[in-house]
Crp/Fnr family transcriptional regulator (Nocardioides aquiterrae), 219 residues
Amino acid sequence: MEWSLLASLDEDERRRVLAAARRRSYGRGEVLVNDGDPSDSLHLVASGRLAVRVSTSDGENATINLLGPGDYFGELSLLEGSPPVRSATIVALEPAETLSLSAAEFRELRRRHPAANQLLLSLMARRVEELSARLLEAMYDGLDRRVHRRLAELAELYDDGRPGAVVVPLTQEHLAELVGGTRPSVNQVLQRLAADGIVELGRGRVTVLDRDRLADLSG
């Protein structure tokens, strides 16, 4: 697949990075990494969808993000110095594959090919942009807008390339976790979308019927 995060490297450099990575396969429900584990490798998501989960102050687990092909996690492990620890648990929602690049392999790659430093800069810059956007969203956007935007992102994540509706196989509880709202309040937003014919609600899923209108609402 094409890796947009490797776009800053030339073709030879991209090949070197991918050649140094190890392909790993995971089954549905399998934990890739645990919160608090030593972070010693970067993972590029090659296929499948992954849930990013954290522990809340009351001891519950909450899903705060979903990753799909082209996404990545563990970039802090590539920094020099003491190895950091994983800040979240990553779980495969379906059979998935990643390309894993260890910190040691990356250090050797940087030693032999200094241009690989650009990859680390690209990873960090992209993460800062993502976190900044989420912070602004949490501070200034209302719940309706957050639900619309997350559903639009999820429709893109679960798009299989076929025309028509896109099924997002997540419960309303999971969607509430993703937007930082309560299930009853998120349900109200979804009911309004359903009444307008933009989504269809089902058990354990939300089917996006009109992505264009949803995109307009998400801003």
